[in-house]
């Protein structure tokens, strides 16, 4: 099953278009895309029994963030060996966890205003929680996942790295710094949910390319370790980490500029197209 947010309304995706969930369910499920996760089991049972749904044409430019208002957004640093190595850092013994504040979430085809000249890209697989998870072991972790989507952990490197300790969360939470979409894909749609090709390009040049099978802490491990500490709730997001190829680690360093087009993809899941414009310049100040 594939679901999406079409102009603020929950829709089922089909090869030939979309079905409005509120209309097809006669109001049983509301139009709000965020509301579906608290009734995930009920919703998937209904969707599985839906026969010959009427599909309407889809205009991809109308798609918004499929999870528009997550309660919690977790992000994992240095979760690919290559990315840790390009930063000159050892592999973590435990997941390096930070947050992207929920107001940074945006859609799959939005324009992001650049606050500085040092904004970087980070292609990521994003997990969407579908069932409350408390102290879940890895063997059952995928049972608590609604699906996965494509994400970018956009990062303002100056703000992120100023001072000691670094400020990962605030440096990665400017408006629009969490593009996700274009849809949520349930794990049963994927041949191998633990080994997917992902990458991104800037103006057509591929800058990141890897497989999620190379994650240091795979999805099941992240759900297990996070849920051992605090509840994961329906509609929460986990940005699982980025592979090597970020601009900050290049020589010379390279960052996003107004007019750039950043395309991000995961095989079998979908593709984001994020554009960039000049924004109000943010000035970093040290204490």
TrEMBL record:
Record-level GO BP terms: carboxylic acid metabolic process
Stretches assigned to the Fumarylacetoacetase-like C-terminal domain: 73-276
Segments crossing the lipid bilayer: none
Entries under InterPro entries matching the protein: FAH, Fumarylacetoacetase-like_C, Fumarylacetoacetase_C_sf
Tagged with keyword Metal-binding: yes
Taxonomic superkingdom: Bacteria
UniProt keyword annotations, A-Z: Metal-binding
Pfam families tied to this protein: FAA_hydrolase
GO molecular function terms listed in the Swiss-Prot or TrEMBL record: isomerase activity; metal ion binding
Family: Belongs to the FAH family.
Protein name, entry field: 2-keto-4-pentenoate hydratase/2-oxohepta-3-ene-1,7-dioic acid hydratase (Catechol pathway)
Provenance organism: Amycolatopsis saalfeldensis
């Amino acid at each position: 099953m594939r679901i999406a947010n079409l102009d603020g309304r929950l829709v089922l995706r089909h090869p030939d278009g979309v079905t409005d969930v509120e209309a097809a369910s006669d109001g049983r499920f509301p139009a709000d895309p965020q509301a579906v996760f608290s009734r995930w089991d009920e919703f998937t049972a209904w969707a599985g029994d839906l026969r010959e749904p009427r599909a309407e044409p889809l205009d991809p430019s109308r798609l918004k963030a499929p999870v528009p208002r997550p309660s919690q957004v977790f992000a994992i640093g240095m979760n690919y060996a290559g990315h840790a190595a390009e930063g000159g850092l050892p592999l973590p013994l435990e997941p390096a966890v930070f947050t992207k504040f929920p107001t940074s979430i945006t859609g799959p085809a939005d324009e992001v205003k650049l606050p500085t000249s040092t904004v970087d890209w980070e292609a990521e697989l994003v997990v969407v929680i579908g069932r409350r998870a408390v102290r879940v072991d890895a063997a059952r972790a995928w049972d608590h996942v609604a699906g996965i989507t494509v994400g970018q952990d956009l990062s303002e490197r100056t703000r992120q790295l100023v001072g000691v300790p670094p400020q990962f969360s605030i440096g990665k939470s400017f408006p629009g710094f969490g593009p996700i979409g274009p849809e949520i894909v349930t794990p049963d749609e994927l041949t191998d949910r633990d080994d997917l090709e992902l990458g991104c390009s800037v103006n057509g040049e591929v800058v990141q390319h890897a497989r999620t099978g190379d994650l240091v802490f795979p999805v099941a491990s992240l759900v297990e370790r996070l849920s051992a500490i605090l509840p994961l709730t329906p509609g929460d997001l986990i940005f699982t980490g980025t592979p090597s190829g970020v601009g900050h680690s290049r020589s010379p360093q390279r960052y996003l500029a107004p007019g750039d087009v950043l395309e991000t993809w995961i095989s079998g899941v979908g593709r984001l197209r994020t554009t960039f414009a000049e924004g109000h310049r943010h000035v970093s100040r040290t204490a």
